[in-house]
Amino acid sequence: xxxxxxVLVAINVLCAALILAYGIQRKRYQFVxxxxxxxxxxxxxxxxxxxxxxxxxxxxxxxxxWHLAVIIAAYPFYIHTFGTWSKxxxxxxxxxxxIIFSIGLLAVNLLADYPLRYGRDAVLVEYTTIFNDTxxxxxxxxxxxxxxxxxxxSVITIFLCFCVxxxxxxxxxxxxxxxxxxxxxxxxxxxxxFRIDSQQSSLVYLGAVPISMLSLxxxxxxxxxxxxxxSALEKEVGERSEFDRLFAALAKISNEGSGDQFFTDVMALLxxxxxxxxxxxxxxxxxxxxxxxxxxxxxxxxxxxxxxxxRRGTPCEQVISxxxxxxxxxxxxxxxxxxxxxxxxxxxxxxxxILDEQQQAVGLIALLFRxxxxxxxxxxxxxxxxxxxxxxxxxRSQLEQQLTTMAFSDYLTGLPxxxxxxxxxxxxxxxxxxxxxxxxxMLFDIDxxxxxxxxxxxxxGDQTLKIIGERLSHFASSSCFxxxxxxxxxxxxxxxxxxxxHALVRTQWTALSAVFKRTCIVGNRKIxxxxxxxxxxxxxxxxxxxxxxxxxxxxxxxxxxxxxDSYCLFEPAxxxxxxxxxSIEQELLQAITHSNELFMVYQPKVxxxxxxxxxxxxxxxxxxxxxxxSPAEFIPVAEETGAxxxxxxWITGDVCRQIRQWLDQGYELVPISINxxxxxxxxxxxxxxxxxxxxxxxxxxxxxELELTESGILKDKSRAVEYLTMLRDKGVTIALDDFGTGxxxxxxxxxxxxxxxxxxxxxxxxxxxxxxxxxxxxxISISKTLGVQFVAEGTETEQQVEIISSYGCQVFQxxxxxxxxxxxxxxxxxxxxxx
Length: 835
Fold this sequence. Notes:
Elements: H1 2-26, H2 29-53, H3 57-85, H4 91-111, E1 123-128, E2 134-139, H5 147-169, H6 173-197, H7 209-256, H8 260-274, E3 278-284, E4 291-299, E5 302-304, E6 308-310, H9 315-321, E7 325-327, H10 331-334, H11 339-343, E8 348-355, E9 361-369, H12 376-408, H13 418-435, E10 438-446, H14 449-456, H15 458-473, E11 481-486, E12 489-497, H16 501-517, E13 520-522, E14 525-527, E15 531-538, H17 548-561, E16 567-569, H18 573-594, E17 598-606, E18 612-623, E19 627-629, H19 631-641, H20 644-664, E20 672-676, H21 678-681, H22 684-696, E21 704-709, H23 717-730, E22 733-739, H24 746-750, E23 756-759, H25 761-765, H26 770-786, E24 789-793, H27 798-806, E25 811-813, H28 823-834
Parallel strand pairs: 15-16, 18-20, 20-21, 21-22, 22-23, 23-24, 24-25
Antiparallel strand pairs: 1-2, 3-4, 3-9, 4-5, 4-6, 7-8, 8-9, 10-12, 10-15, 11-12, 13-14, 17-18, 18-19
Helix pairs in contact: 1-2, 1-7, 2-3, 2-7, 3-4, 3-5, 5-6, 6-7, 7-8, 8-12, 14-15, 18-19, 20-22
Protein name: Bifunctional diguanylate cyclase/phosphodiesterase
GO molecular function: cyclic-guanylate-specific phosphodiesterase activity
Keywords: Membrane, Transmembrane, Transmembrane helix
């Protein structure tokens, strides 16, 4: 008997510990309750052994009291354990009811003089157990309240039977069978206890054995679950390891592969891993969306030729139209029209769409198997990853192609752009030199294109350029390269030409200039154009100091200087000018930063009586190497090369410094004009630098006047108005220089904020012509209408002064009054004016 109960107690303690740990870990509270029942069972078995071993009646009665208390305390745990396990509704409420009921029974059992089981006349009776041990049981009349114990037991038994039914209904046969056996065993244990108390059996108390057996069975189930979980984890780890190797290989291909080779390598990897009989990467045919054009196909791991097939009647149609689809077996029964499935005895099919940026299907991955699929879930996951990566690569490849197109194509006309042109001309030059042949490049520029933008707007200008670009594109072929060089400039290049140089250029000029001269219809507007062209025969006309485009640009400048609507073929003599321009540029930049070769002179602006009203600051250059260099020489070079920006900053700095010096010397100054070129005016940094320079020398803004030509402000009217308004708001005055030489309309000029109108010297020189006189008179009248000051520039004779004065002009500038004066001479004139 001792060994029997010791084993039971050990089983109960072990089950309680293991089941409790499992229940807490998995958060399954029915197992926590079952662990508690095992704790009560261990206590019950220990008390059963102690009760059967008792030799004193009082000791036996006290043990009986606690023996019954353990049974009563365990009742709520039965309810909670199996009610929760079977997911019975209101389990918690029933448990609480039993807790309240059990507390009442426990109170009566523990506080009464005698336990609920026996009355006053109980005695100890010896008997021999089945283990051949001597045991003693209490015999006597039962307590009047003891039937409540039987009632509780009956209710719990009925409750457990209902739980069996719940398990059975939910097809949980293991749980329903185990609990049914436990109930039957529990009934048997109760009957055995009754027989022992009636001295009719040699058994011992077995009340806790059923729960012990159920707990052991539960441990077996838990251990099997652990084994399954362990096996699943091992399988998952193995699959993850496989996935890691697979995706590492995919990543390696992604890092190393590009272009079509990437797609081939990816599909080869997919076909090998999935052991697919066919692995297909197909894209929706761009010409006919009803068809799929394969990009790469693998048959049993070997690449085969691509093919085209109709989507209709194939599982691929489902993939493209809906989403990923899987047919584990007999796919051909679902798609009887798909002959490939029948001919190749295909059983399993897995298809996954390839999506673009808008999540629209543009193709698919299809895996075909001659055997049914056993793990379609894993294959679908892999196909998802591969399809996503292929889609990403397609988008990257498309973006790269777009960027390449953007890098080498003109956004407006669609023609090759400057970058593409330079690359192509370099290729042409190398081939021409290798084959000892000449090529021809012609650079076209639309004459006065800025006028179109100004009159009709940039949208019309852009449409015009598109029309010209489209016309020129018809000339493009393997023997003729057409590109947009930038702005309103186009290039036509021939890799090889034969014939007399001048005749050849003349012929091409006649044909191509007609393209420009043909009327452009933009909306309801008819736009007529002309063009200028510079040509270069390469490599025969090239020189080591100039490249193809540089030579063509110089020839184009010559063509424009000759009156536009003409062409000019590059000549070797131009190289001398190019080299001269470069040396002038270098020497000028050096003079700006490292010498005193540059200096300013000031030509007075006066009234008719030679009273000083203002002055124009003019830069002069006396080179240590070349001597005096005329502004007519170095200013154009500075504009062509971009050195004008540094020169302009030097001029504004020197003039502002000089004004500050005169102010410090106490002179009352007149406004000093500074000439600004169109490229300077287009540069916001120059305007900011000018204002910052004026502020740094603390000069009143009204002492500075800017002189701009018409062409300098014609490119962008809105920007011109913005800059001029900003300058005038500060107090800087604006003079429109060389008026009459540009192409601006009066309505355009009237919208510009300026203070002074300077008529060009060419009009003054022709005052002996009656028509010109009327024109000058009209311009002076216009200035009065606009409310601006008028300056006659280039007055050299008294007769000119008399005529212009009679028209109402009051301000003059020219050699008749004064040449440009060095600083010291201008100071003398300034001093006389002050006095």
